[in-house]
């Protein structure tokens, strides 16, 4: 890495929330790249995401937001692709078929499970009344999503991680979802392939250091 790139790396700022799945993905990615960053917490429970400062950098009122390379970047998958292209991260395979498969696995988590289990969505659904509870909602949709993902993983490419033995985009998306599965009481017994991948990823320092329990702001 050039001196200029090193200097830019030192100026990476991650506006995040410790339990945000999307922010968790980026912490993993930065750790994998050995890219130092400064964390600036945005307290979702306190409503900081709707404050003027956060809306100025992220008009959706979401986290994470990344400031790096003179840019303000939002949407975790877009940031991961940016890192892949600018830092030669290797988050996607070299072959086009492999890239399609890894993206499909990543999207199954980030675009199918995550949005419907986002706290603001789940709270709204439960707030509409009826028999729905937060735990029931989360358990239903996380379980349903992981069932589909397990089937996708069983179709092809055995290995230690989602696509062979090289950590990639799908693994970065999977680990935060497994944290949420554990948080909401979704057992992984029915998903042996996912459970095995998760157990392996948990042993990798870049994943372990990004765990929410280690990133929770000190009160």
From TrEMBL:
<dbReference type="Pfam" id="PF13409">
    <property type="entry name" value="GST_N_2"/>
</dbReference>
<dbReference type="InterPro" id="IPR036282">
    <property type="entry name" value="Glutathione-S-Trfase_C_sf"/>
</dbReference>
<keyword id="KW-0413">Isomerase</keyword>
<dbReference type="InterPro" id="IPR010987">
    <property type="entry name" value="Glutathione-S-Trfase_C-like"/>
</dbReference>
<feature type="domain" description="GST C-terminal">
    <location>
        <begin position="95"/>
        <end position="219"/>
    </location>
</feature>
<dbReference type="InterPro" id="IPR040079">
    <property type="entry name" value="Glutathione_S-Trfase"/>
</dbReference>
<dbReference type="InterPro" id="IPR036249">
    <property type="entry name" value="Thioredoxin-like_sf"/>
</dbReference>
<comment type="similarity">
    <text>Belongs to the GST superfamily. Zeta family.</text>
</comment>
<dbReference type="GO" id="GO:0016034">
    <property type="term" value="F:maleylacetoacetate isomerase activity"/>
</dbReference>
<feature type="domain" description="GST N-terminal">
    <location>
        <begin position="10"/>
        <end position="91"/>
    </location>
</feature>
<dbReference type="InterPro" id="IPR034333">
    <property type="entry name" value="GST_Zeta_N"/>
</dbReference>
<dbReference type="InterPro" id="IPR034330">
    <property type="entry name" value="GST_Zeta_C"/>
</dbReference>
<protein>
    <submittedName>
        <fullName>Maleylacetoacetate isomerase</fullName>
        <ecNumber>5.2.1.2</ecNumber>
    </submittedName>
</protein>
<dbReference type="InterPro" id="IPR005955">
    <property type="entry name" value="GST_Zeta"/>
</dbReference>
<dbReference type="InterPro" id="IPR004045">
    <property type="entry name" value="Glutathione_S-Trfase_N"/>
</dbReference>
């Amino acid at each position: 890495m050039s001196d200029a790139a090193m200097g830019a790396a030192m100026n990476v700022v991650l506006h995040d929330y410790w339990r945000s799945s999307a922010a968790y993905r980026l912490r993993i990615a930065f750790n994998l790249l050995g890219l130092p960053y400064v964390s600036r917490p945005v307290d979702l429970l306190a409503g900081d995401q709707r404050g003027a400062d956060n809306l100025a950098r992220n008009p959706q009122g979401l986290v994470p937001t990344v400031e790096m390379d003179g840019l303000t970047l939002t949407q975790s998958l877009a940031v991961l692709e940016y890192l892949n292209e600018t830092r030669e991260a290797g988050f996607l395979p070299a072959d086009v078929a492999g890239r399609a498969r890894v993206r499909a696995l990543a999207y199954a988590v980030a675009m199918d499970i995550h949005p419907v289990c986002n706290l603001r969505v789940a709270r709204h659904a439960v707030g509409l009344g009826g028999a729905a509870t937060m735990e029931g909602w989360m358990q239903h949709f996380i379980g349903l999503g992981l069932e589909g993902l397990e089937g996708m993983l069983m179709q092809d490419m055995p290995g230690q991680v989602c696509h062979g033995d090289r950590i990639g985009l799908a693994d970065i998306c999977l680990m935060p979802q497994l944290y949420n599965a554990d948080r909401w009481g979704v057992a992984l017994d029915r998903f042996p392939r996912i459970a095995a991948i998760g157990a392996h990823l948990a042993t990798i320092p870049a994943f372990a250091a990004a765990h929410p329990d280690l990133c929770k702001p000190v009160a």
